[in-house]
Amino acid sequence: MTRQRKHNLMSNLPMCCTDMDIDLLDLAMPERLTPEGREFVEAHGIFQVPVGELMRLAVYQGKRIVKIRHVCQKLDIQTGKCTIYESRPKICRDFDCSRRHDCSCKGSGLTQVE
């Protein structure tokens, strides 16, 4: 896949599947996570990424919260669709994408992948 094609694909993905906000303490001590939070973080694949790499991609949001740029491992970047949609984590089912001003779906939950 060319660099331009990957960029085009990534810019059309749902933003809620390509980043997450997390408390630094929860990242360092995952046992603090609620069951819903743990389910989400595990589906995202965060625990398989070295902490140094996660922090390199993190943007500090204040009050120990960081936004981590990381594509959910359950997201098919070719189609922009969740590969576990029917059994996706509760936090994903409950998420209101209309709250995201930066999402390519414009609050509809649907994206167009070129």
The total domain count is: 1
Strand tally is 5
Query: What is the tally of helical segments?
Result: 5
Provide the succession of SSEs.
HEHHHEEEEH
CA-based gyration radius: 14 Å
Keywords for this structure?
114 residues, alpha+beta, 17% strand
Describe this structure in words.
With 114 residues, this protein is an alpha+beta fold. The chain has one domain (3-99). The chain contains five helices and five strands. The protein has helices at residues 3-11, 24-28, 35-44, 51-56, 90-94, and strands at 19-23, 58-62, 65-69, 75-76, 81-82. It has a three-stranded antiparallel β-sheet. Strands 4-5 form a two-stranded antiparallel ribbon. A hairpin with a 4-residue loop joins strand 4 (75-76) and strand 5 (81-82). Residues 4-9 have low confidence and may be disordered.
Question: How does the SSE layout of this entry go?
Answer:
Elements: H1 3-11, E1 19-23, H2 24-28, H3 35-44, H4 51-56, E2 58-62, E3 65-69, E4 75-76, E5 81-82, H5 90-94
